[in-house]
Amino acid sequence: MNRFKIPTTQKAVIFSTLNGPLEYKSIPVPKPAPNQLLVNIHYSGVCHSDLHVYKGEFGKTLPNLPLVGGHEGSGVVVGFGSNVTNWQIGDLVGVKLINHTCGTCEHCQQSQETACADSRLSGVHINGTFQQYCIVDALQATKLPRDINLPAVGPILCAGITVYKGLKASLAKPGQWVVISGAAGGLGSLAVQYAKALGLRVIAIDGGGEPNEKEKFVKDLGAEVYIDFTKSADVVKEVHQHSGSGGGAHAALNVSTSEAAIQQSINFVRSRGTVVLIGLPAEAKIKIPILPTVLRQITVKGSYVGTNWDTHEAVDFFARGLIRCPIQIVGLSELERVFKLMEQGKIIGRYVVDTSK
Q1: CA gap 181, 206 in Å, rounded
Q2: Which residues does residue 277 pair with via DSSP β-bridges, in sequence order?
Q3: What digits encode the pLDDT tens for the residues 298-310?
Q4: What pTM was estimated for this model as a whole?
Q5: pLDDT tens-digit map of 148-180
Q6: For 101, which of 12, 40, 113, 329 could close a Cys bridge (C-beta 3.0–4.6 Å)?
Q7: In this protein, which residues make up the domain named Enoyl reductase (ER) (predicted)?
Q8: Helix runs in the chain, H state only
Q9: 255 φ/ψ angles, rounded to the nearest 5 degrees
Q10: Where are the domains of the chain?
Q11: Which residues contact 87 (CB under 8 A, 6 or more apart)?
Q12: What's the distance, Cα to Cα, between the start and end of the chain in Å?
């Protein structure tokens, strides 16, 4: 017998038009299909890509408007469909960006489901985690340990796995230098910690805020060097000075939403270095000088969220206390205010909404 009483309606934040009013209102509780879980979302991280989706910066139209955004949910399994066998009522669960994949394409068959062309995304194609109850494919849900920090694990399910996968993609080895642009933000603050946990040495780049605020923040997380791009006369020169005699860092991880920062990051790395692109400034382009890129054998690659196994590894780092997620908890009804703070660049760390408020 299901010990959870499932209501017929729930609170959610929805938008019916791109960049239109955000409505905090009651909507029906969804019913799981045969292969789906019904999750009572307790907390949801607020990702910058949620803002991009809401503003229509990933395309002028989205399917299924009105839409509930969000893709960093943590909660409890309260129901599931008739085909689900590997979950129990009461299990703790994480809901991430990838909500469903086809399972049959070459990428899915090779456990690289992030490249599945038929994937469906929480808060993009399917109502996401800015609601009290959501549905997720049982194969894409993440089983969480019983003693996990439920409010703080939500951002790990997107920001955490995204930067962890990006660091793996950089191929940087323990003891080598990695530059993280946008280091004090939600993605960057986790990237600094995962880099340290992987044995990498971190040069953190960010700017603005109160004097020394961001420098103290990222150094407390494990960065060895902080460069304030708003005060530095030559950021590239400083990176090279701090990263030894090799002519730059071994890798650069760009999680900022600045096109200029992305362009500049190519110059941060030494010969045979790797630039990993994660941040998604709207309609941005990158121009690569061919001759030095070829002669210096620079690799530039994009990295997009993480697979189920990447998620397992990233959550394990967090569960073992190697990663702390600096969060501020607010009510779901305050989501519009959080979006405004994002637009103003005033967020340090990560905001998490409590769906009960």
Answers
A1: 6
A2: 254, 302
A3: 999 999 889 999 9
A4: 0.88
A5: 999 999 989 998 999 999 999 999 999 999 999
A6: 113
A7: 17-353
A8: 48-55, 106-109, 150-153, 159-170, 186-197, 213-221, 235-242, 259-265, 290-295, 308-319, 335-343
A9: -110, 5
A10: 9-158+306-354, 161-302
A11: 37, 77, 80, 93, 138, 141, 143
A12: 28
Question: Residue 44: what are its φ and ψ, rounded to 5°?
Answer: -140, 125
d(CA 150, CA 121): 22
Indicate the length of the chain as a whole number.
Answer: 357
Q: Encoding tokens for residue 243?
A: 């990263």
Name the fold adopted by 161-302: Rossmann fold (3.40.50)
Q: For residue 354, what are the contacts with CB-CB under 8 A and spacing of at least 6?
A: 42, 43, 151, 329, 330, 331, 332
> What φ, ψ does residue 142 adopt, rounded to 5°?
-110, 120
Question: φ, ψ for residue 131 (rounded to 5)?
Answer: -155, 170
For strand 142-143 and strand 177-181, is the pairing parallel, antiparallel, or unpaired? unpaired
- Cβ atoms of 249 and 269 within 8 Å: the answer is yes
Extract the tokens encoding 225: 């060097």
Q: Does domain 9-158+306-354 have CATH number 3.40.50.720?
A: no
Could you tell me how far CA 228 lies from the centroid of its own chain?
A: 23
